[in-house]
Amino acid sequence: MKILAFETSCDDTAIAVVEDGVKVLANVRQTQTEHHEYGGVVPEIAARLHAENWRAVLEQCLSDAKLTIEDIDAIAVTQGPGLQTSLLTGTTASSFLSLLKNKPLIPVHHILGHMASVALDRNIEDFEFPSLTFTASGGHSDFYICENFTDSRKVGQTIDDAAGEAFDKCAKMLGLGYPGGPIVSELAEKGDSTAFAFPVIMLEPDSLNFSFSGLKAAIYRTVEACEDTTDETFIANVCASFQETVVKTCVKKLERAFEKHPEVRSFHFVGGVSANKQLREALKNTCESWDKKFFTTNQFIYSTDNAAMIASVAYFLYEKNPEIAKIQFVDANPRLVI
């Protein structure tokens, strides 16, 4: 089954074609660099650029897949959560194509897409459930117990800043630009991770929730106390110490999750923050010590927002319940919950 998917929840216009939930035939993404000078995504600019870009992205996607729209079996789209005006581009375009070409239309939750991203370019037989899935991005740092790629329950979440948001804010305080994650990670490789003792926030003894606001405050105080915030060694050391603290926090939370949920057989690490190499390696080592299978996306492009993951989970949702595609027009829902 070939599914064409739209993903426009934030600032990337992405369209992909995936066969049977795993085989990526095409995966095209138009990144909006216009937001960098503002230090974050400007919704009005994002919406305008989505409207300008989606048709060219669609044409490129179908060309890469060597398909026409008539070859597509179904269309999928991110319904939410995300920016309302950005989501509207994807839901409107996909609904229009569904009506015009009489194709089933499958609405998808953005986070479910991330959960399925580990399946891309892999064999389904490789996975063992139940799994513990950690979704870490600019807006989410959540733990889920998953029975498969469509059925999950949340067992932990961020109570303030998400991990990706903390990276962005650390970069902003150091004057490093946006998006902050890749910049901080690169500079961290040049710094001393023991230079600053930032707090590892664990909350209550049995809590699987995350809190990075205390770490953010510690970064702020450190930067404010520095006489020369442009010093390259200082910046590198802050980045290294910050990243080390995030890694320690996530590792300790993962160990606590394994203690509370011994039934899980594998661990899935997804979302934009899963592109962080140091964090990937630390969580993988933790899984090995607990005898749990470790999965993350096998290409970094599948970690960040992309349409291939939306097409993947749409296949599993449709396979489970074809009735999900009965709606002919999908309404954008910026606060959609799983």
Index terms:
9 helices, 338 residues, 5-stranded mixed sheet, 2 domains, 18% strand, 41% helix, Nucleotidyltransferase, domain 5
Would you kindly provide a brief summary of this structure?
With 338 residues, the protein is of the alpha/beta class. The protein has nine helices and ten strands. The protein has helices at residues 43-65, 84-101, 110-116, 163-173, 180-188, 213-225, 232-260, 277-289, 307-320, and strands at 2-7, 12-19, 23-31, 74-80, 105-109, 131-136, 141-146, 152-156, 266-270, 293-296.
Unreliable runs: none
Distance between the termini: 24 Å
What is the total domain count? Answer: 2
β content, as a range? 15-25%
Largest sheet: 5 strands, mixed
Mean pLDDT: 95
Radius of gyration: 20 Å
Principal-axes geometry comes out as globular
Overview of the structural elements:
The chain has 338 residues and is an alpha/beta fold. The protein folds into two domains: 2-116 and 301-325, ATPase, nucleotide binding domain (Nucleotidyltransferase, domain 5, 2-Layer Sandwich), CATH 3.30.420; 127-297, 2-Layer Sandwich (Nucleotidyltransferase, domain 5). It contains nine helices and ten strands. The protein is globular, with a radius of gyration of 20 Å. The mean pLDDT is 95.
